[in-house]
Design goal:
Helix content is 35%, strand content 15%. It is built from eight helices and nine strands. The strands form two sheets. Strands 8-7-6-5-9 form a five-stranded antiparallel beta sheet, with no helix packed on it. It starts with 7 loop residues before the first helix and ends with a strand.
């Protein structure tokens, strides 16, 4: 028997050393086929690799140590998942969940999360707002009246063009009364067209949406803006800052944040500027 703690290697080592097989016939047949690629030498399990040398098989504790050394200490470049897997497989390391473990390790790396790429996909579905009437617009008067002059300036047209027709006061008033009678119908048709246009825009926008929902107490990173960016950070500076904790949900895709000391941030933040933090 081997002196290793129980992990995925022990079943193969027991078969290679003592030819010990499971009682189930299917499991024993699968183990024999699997063990054909392994060899046990000098107290270590090795696996035959396709690119040449034997790959040393690692357990859970050793695999975490090797990933940390390659990702943070020896290479110090905090490579992404594909590059990290390549740097683990090529020198000759192996365990069954090497790609999945590398993905989880990079996902929880603090520096990788702070320097990660910005998320450009919409994080919330589009919520369109229809006007009460088709001809109304919402706005804000920030200037007020400019002067006491009348709003309309009469203009006398001296040169006539070919694109005109003669109209008298009486038929003009009759046409205006007819248009006023049809005004409600025109408004309803314009409202229907506007609602259809809004729905079409929502469908197009929501196809790209990658919904991200946060709960109270979740740890998040906040996008670094021009106001919060460090002085002289340049393009190599952090793209995310934090972590912060969500203290309340204030609306659709809007959250209230607080720092690790419990101090609330002065304003609410949209989910488009937030990203979940893994630790």
């Amino acid at each position: 028997m081997t002196n290793l703690v129980w992990d995925w290697r022990n079943e193969i080592i027991n078969y290679l050393e003592q030819e010990k097989l499971p009682e189930d016939s299917k499991a024993s047949r699968a183990l024999r086929a699997k063990a054909a690629r392994y060899s046990f030498k000098g107290g270590h399990l090795y696996r035959k690799s396709f690119h040449g040398p034997l790959a040393r098989c690692l357990g859970a504790s050793k695999s975490n140590y090797v990933m940390r050394e390659v990702h943070e200490w020896i290479c110090v470049n905090h490579s992404r998942v594909d590059s990290l897997v390549l740097k683990l497989v090529w020198p000759g390391y192996y365990w069954p969940r090497i790609e999945e473990d590398a993905k989880a390790f990079v996902q929880k790396c603090d520096k990788c999360q702070h320097y990660a790429l910005l998320v450009h996909q919409p994080a919330e579905q589009l919520h369109s707002v229809l006007y009460p009437w088709s001809s109304m617009k919402w706005g804000m008067d920030i200037f007020g009246p400019l002067s006491s002059a009348p709003a309309l300036i009469p203009v006398e047209v001296g040169e006539c063009t070919l694109r005109y027709f003669q109209a008298s006061e009486e038929p003009n008033n009759e046409a205006m009364l007819v248009n006023l009678e049809l005004l409600d119908e025109c408004r309803n048709l314009a409202h229907i067209r506007m609602a259809a246009q809004k729905k079409k825009m929502e469908r197009y926008y929501n196809r790209r949406a990658n919904l991200r929902y946060l709960k109270v107490g979740d740890l998040v990173l906040r996008k670094v803006t021009q106001n919060t960016r460090e002085l002289n950070a340049g393009k190599l500076g952090q793209t995310w800052e934090g972590p912060y904790r969500t203290s309340a949900v204030t609306g659709k895709g809007s959250y209230e944040l607080e720092n690790q000391d419990g101090e609330k941030l002065p304003s609410n933040w949209n989910v488009a500027h937030l990203k979940r933090y893994y630790c």
